[in-house]
């Protein structure tokens, strides 16, 4: 694309480095900003800069948090014997929205993915092992997405935790509530038969 | 959404003000930036800020340009008697890509849209009328999109130009090259029959 302006070209280049945003979309977004008051662009730039430069993570669960210990880890109401292992803050938000979980989280910050150069050292696995080693944790729940990277990561952590005889579990996979059986994929349907639950507990929630 | 961090919430709020970007997408983009080096966020913020604060427009055609007169207006190779009226720089880039047009452009900066608070005064229509009044322009080509706003804008400009007896034309609407007739909408097909061209000229390009 020939932009007739280096300023415009540079802005489009930078915006199009965001995932899922191509040059055309970037140009559309940037032209939108040009039609808005200058303050909007200034606020946007400042918000991005502030977050990236000043972001802090909870020293216990590694979730994004403005305080040293996040609200969940600091809450006396949460059950500190259960730790749910998730990839990032989106998973924490999703599980919190269910209102069904009262334990703590451990945010890995990603999944093991040699293709993307993410090894176990890039994630907060060591900190999880230390937590289990310290003794208070009774159960670790694996809640990573069931992709190859997710399964690899789960298994790696599972192996690391083996010496400490902590209970491990994985979130249930099955047919979504309200979904028709005929449209479910075979793997999910197979798992939901294998991992069937007592009828009484299927009536809850 | 409960973000557990004001910094994160603020960044997501700002990013989600961009058109077509909801809170979920904004969160995904912002988390991506957190996984990248700080420099990427700094460069992105700076590029947006630089563009918005320092953007300049060609004093003749009003296209975005780093120089007082854009490359197209300044080029001695361009035919200064023909002016093509477009909405924004994307249209200029699209027409330039065809390699079929050697005249100049006039970038309106939008379309008349009372619903969005855009009246003729917000656009560069006065400057176009002045250009025609000055006498060098022989033909004005309307190339706005054929929406209600586009048609309204075309007609408004057409009325403004009427006293100066300049030739006016509109880009041809019809079936796309390579498209099947049976899938074309009726309005387009109707126009392409009404505005049929001599067979010889259909063989070109």
TrEMBL record, chains A, B:
<dbReference type="InterPro" id="IPR000093">
    <property type="entry name" value="DNA_Rcmb_RecR"/>
</dbReference>
<dbReference type="GO" id="GO:0008270">
    <property type="term" value="F:zinc ion binding"/>
</dbReference>
<keyword id="KW-0234">DNA repair</keyword>
<comment type="similarity">
    <text>Belongs to the RecR family.</text>
</comment>
<dbReference type="GO" id="GO:0006281">
    <property type="term" value="P:DNA repair"/>
</dbReference>
<dbReference type="InterPro" id="IPR006171">
    <property type="entry name" value="TOPRIM_dom"/>
</dbReference>
<dbReference type="GO" id="GO:0006310">
    <property type="term" value="P:DNA recombination"/>
</dbReference>
<dbReference type="GO" id="GO:0003677">
    <property type="term" value="F:DNA binding"/>
</dbReference>
<dbReference type="Pfam" id="PF13662">
    <property type="entry name" value="Toprim_4"/>
</dbReference>
<dbReference type="Pfam" id="PF21175">
    <property type="entry name" value="RecR_C"/>
</dbReference>
<dbReference type="InterPro" id="IPR023627">
    <property type="entry name" value="Rcmb_RecR"/>
</dbReference>
<protein>
    <recommendedName>
        <fullName>Recombination protein RecR</fullName>
    </recommendedName>
</protein>
<dbReference type="Pfam" id="PF02132">
    <property type="entry name" value="RecR_ZnF"/>
</dbReference>
<feature type="zinc finger region" description="C4-type">
    <location>
        <begin position="58"/>
        <end position="73"/>
    </location>
</feature>
<keyword id="KW-0479">Metal-binding</keyword>
<comment type="function">
    <text>May play a role in DNA repair. It seems to be involved in an RecBC-independent recombinational process of DNA repair. It may act with RecF and RecO.</text>
</comment>
<keyword id="KW-0227">DNA damage</keyword>
<keyword id="KW-0863">Zinc-finger</keyword>
<dbReference type="InterPro" id="IPR034137">
    <property type="entry name" value="TOPRIM_RecR"/>
</dbReference>
<dbReference type="Pfam" id="PF21176">
    <property type="entry name" value="RecR_HhH"/>
</dbReference>
<keyword id="KW-0233">DNA recombination</keyword>
<feature type="domain" description="Toprim">
    <location>
        <begin position="81"/>
        <end position="176"/>
    </location>
</feature>
<keyword id="KW-0862">Zinc</keyword>
<dbReference type="InterPro" id="IPR015967">
    <property type="entry name" value="Rcmb_RecR_Znf"/>
</dbReference>
